[in-house]
Amino acid sequence: MEGSSESNSRGLNTSGVSEFLPAERIIADRSKSLSHIGYVRSLLGSHKEDNLRADDDINVRALKCEDVSLRQWLDNPERSVDAFECFHVFRQIVEIVNAAHSQGIVVHNVRPSCFVMSSFNRVSFIESASDSGSDEERAKDTKTTTTRKSQEIGGSRKEEYQEEKQPFPMKEILAMEMSWYTSPEEDTGSHSGCASDVYRLGVLLFELFCPVSSREEKSRTMSSLKHRVLPPQILLKWPKEASFCLWLLHPEPSFRPSMSELLKSEFINEPRESLEEREAAIELRERIEEQELLLEFLFLIQQRKQETADKLRDTVSLLSSDIDQVLKRQLSLKQKGNDVLSFLVSRKRIRQGAEGVATEENEDNIVDDTLDSTLLESSRLMRNFKKLESVYFATRYRQIKAAASFKPLARYSSALSSDGKSSVSNLTQPSRDHMNDSRQGGWIDPFLEGLCKYLTFSKLRVKADLKQGDLLNSANLVCAIGFDRDGELFATAGVNKKIKIFECESIIKDGRDIHYPVVELASRSKLSGVCWNSYIKSQIASCNFEGVVQVWDVTRGQLVTEMKEHEKRVWSIDISTADPTLLASGSDDGSVKLWSINQGVSIGTIKTKANVCCVQFPSDSGRSLAFGSADHRVYYYDLRNPKLPLCTMIGHTKTVSYVRFVDSSTLVSSSTDNTLKLWDLSMSVSGVNEAPVHSFMGHTNVKNFVGLSVSDGYIATGSETNEVYVYHKAFPMPVLSYKFKTVDPVSRLEVDDPSQFISSVCWRGQSSTLVAANSTGNIKILEMV
């Protein structure tokens, strides 16, 4: 259509009944078309370049607002005729058409498919028409537009679904609608004018008051209407409406009423007062619904805030209870301190005993003040206050949940009363109360211990740098570090195919330029792990990339046993502390093998579906074993029943590279998903644990083995940022960290090398000292201070 690219679909409000009007309509007088178009555009506001796109936007907006096409509303088989409702819809359309005619514009598209109905039967005009071209071109273009409309309206999933339920297929009805709303003069090829729009209003009025139940009846009724033949039911039930409709449908355009005559007619004006009353009622209902919407919104806010307030009240109550518990403990400790002081005073016969007590109380106050200032001034505590708070509440709620599930047995002691009857004594009640108090305060000791340990140390200090003669050798990656049972010697192993044994104290005390190992053991292949025997001081085991497990005598510097049953690389080995003759190994062949060191052969195998990257025995038992796998899981087995795991821990999203026992019922796992996870073995349900106690985050680990070691609740791990991180089991954030400095061998200046990472860490027994190595073979002895 000519000029369609410059058309506009902005809306013009007419008497408050129309939200959308077309930007262009066909002009009756073609000689005035351009001036009319410009004038209408000035009324309608800003322009869009693409009329079709604008129409599409309007349709989409209408559908999104849950508007419905007037065509769909008319053809709804459940629709019953409500005279006031029909008058309300008809009058809105009449006023829209009159607004166009008053400007000399012929609408042409006065058809139900060109209108939408919003809530409370508000009618909006959504279709644009061309301003130029022959009648045939307009008919063709309008048909094309209608087809596009039918695709737009009938193509959505929502309306396709509705079509299946309705007896009026939308696409077919829209195709027939063009012929129904074509005036007699347009059928004969005559000029189309304002009278043609009046004819179309007559057809629309007929459809409003004559609903049909089937497509065939619809087609038959509308065909008869072309000949001004109305169904008997409309003549009997709606005689006034039928008469007015026939006037509008007169075959001679000159005999049809003009828009001004139509608006002045008794038919339009008679029900106006009732319609105005109805509109007022509708408007009132709209406002009530708006108020209800606001009310619902406010109620929802109130409900959520009330829930928050209830939770806050419960939280404050819990805190108050815990504060009381701590104050009771503090008071008890102070009383014990006063008793001890009184005892010392009496023993030493100090005359000014009262002054001593006063001095002690002053000292207590000083201690309290010092503690307060320590907590407030500790930047690490304040920086991680939110995390500490979350751990506190998690600990408390876990303890409360456990207490709620605990059902103590009622124990009573029976006694014979003076009258010979049996009575129930409550002598055991105080013990139960004491037990309850003990359970309620059971969180204090572990949380306080963790908090104190978290705040005990402030940094990692370098005690010594281990400088080796082959530092420039590119094959210096240290894969594993291990201390002997007494913490005197530590071994390193890596891709240089050597196990090097160093004496820890001599390295710390001697400030030599180069440190040499006291023993060096050579292997045929790259080494991936080492482990000392906790019983035989001189015995150490290793595993390598060829899948061989070896046992060495450090004192003699000789290979004692070599075991070759694995088919692929062995990643990890561990010797049981409880049974020093039992060794476990995990391999890329998907198996865990149990070895008898004395016999030099495997005595059991656990097969898995994925690579096994790490194994470890608990310190107090040789009957159980944990291992981590490339399937992202940690498995815990009772070796007396190796067919099924006792517990499977699920939570990591990548390969589990290390597992270490913190104590007999708790273990920590490391993964290349950037996390460490702490698991409570007693929390498994049906052999599965999907809820770690903590997820430790702060370090970076996405592709390399960076080491993992545990000592007295402290967990050390490496990072791919060339840093050592230390966590405590009580809290998920780092306690300390230390970054290895990279020095350029030529310029002797510090440089940042992103390719370097920490490759192994190991605590020195239960001390605060650890050894860490990075991917270049740089080894440091660090101490928490």
Topology diagram in text:
Blueprint: H1 33-44, H2 51-64, E1 68-69, H3 70-74, H4 83-101, E2 115-117, E3 123-125, H5 135-154, H6 157-165, H7 170-180, H8 184-187, H9 194-209, H10 215-225, H11 232-237, H12 239-248, H13 259-264, H14 266-269, H15 272-348, H16 353-377, H17 379-383, H18 385-405, E4 413-416, E5 422-425, H19 429-440, H20 444-456, E6 460-466, E7 478-483, E8 489-494, E9 498-503, H21 504-509, E10 519-522, E11 527-532, E12 539-544, E13 549-553, E14 558-563, E15 570-575, E16 582-587, E17 591-596, E18 601-607, E19 612-616, E20 624-629, E21 633-638, E22 647-650, E23 656-663, E24 666-671, E25 676-680, E26 688-689, E27 694-696, E28 708-711, E29 714-718, E30 723-728, E31 731-739, E32 742-743, E33 750-751, E34 758-763, E35 769-774, E36 779-784
Helix pairs in contact: 4-9, 4-15, 5-7, 9-12, 15-16
Keywords: Coiled coil, Nucleus, Phytochrome signaling pathway, Repeat, Transferase, Ubl conjugation pathway, WD repeat
InterPro entries: Kinase-like_dom_sf (IPR011009), Prot_kinase_dom (IPR000719), SPA1/2/3/4 (IPR044630), WD40/YVTN_repeat-like_dom_sf (IPR015943), WD40_PAC1 (IPR020472), WD40_repeat_CS (IPR019775), WD40_repeat_dom_sf (IPR036322), WD40_rpt (IPR001680)
GO molecular function, one term: transferase activity
Question: What are the defining features of this structure?
Answer:
785 residues, alpha+beta, five-stranded mixed beta sheet, four-stranded antiparallel beta sheet, 21 helices, 39% helix, elongated, disordered N terminus
